[in-house]
Amino acid sequence: MANNIKTVPTADYDAVIATANKYVDGLRVGSSEVAAEAFHKDAIMYGFISPPKPDMLAGPIGNLWTFIKKEGSAPNIKTRNDVLAITQTTAVVRIDMEGDASGADYTDFLTLIKIEGKWQVIAKVFHKLMTTVH
Questions:
Q1: CATH classification code of 10-129
Q2: pLDDT tens digits for 49-96?
Q3: For residues 75-100, b (16+ Cβ closer than 10 Å) or e, as one string?
């Protein structure tokens, strides 16, 4: 019989969601400093900002800090954060987001890596949605 071993403790799921929540908290209060606590210093982001036109925003996570500083807080933001996959050192989280600071809705996919015991977002891939259902 094969070993039936749990390799990822529940605490890691909680820590991954807490990291994603830190990003959302930064959006909510309009603080790039708070959001940055969730990200690795060399994180990247890619996504489409003007669907259906193929306007891609690509590059360093500093693009997100610029957006937060420009748009400000999103006190009414709503999110659903789900861990889609997790290993001992990697995770993927989907964030279904409604009502960011610009009033837009997004789907974000965050790829996290665990470095020295700390979960950090290393990549953010997003899609800006055209319409809202809320």
A1: 3.10.450.50
A2: 876 667 888 999 999 999 999 999 999 999 999 999 999 999 999 999
A3: eebebebebeebeeeebbbbbebbbb
Q: Is the dihedral of CA 55, 56, 62, 68 positive or negative?
A: positive
Both tokens assigned to 56: 């891609």
Burial group, residue 28, by CB count within 10 angstroms (0-12, 13-18, 19+): buried
| Tally of CB atoms within 10 A around 61 | 22
| Tokens 């982001």 sit on residue | 45
Provide the strand spans (E) within 4-104.
39-48, 56-60, 78-86, 90-98
> Whole-prediction pTM value?
0.91
Cβ atoms of 107 and 95 closer than 8 Å: yes
User: Domain limits of the chain?
Assistant: 10-129
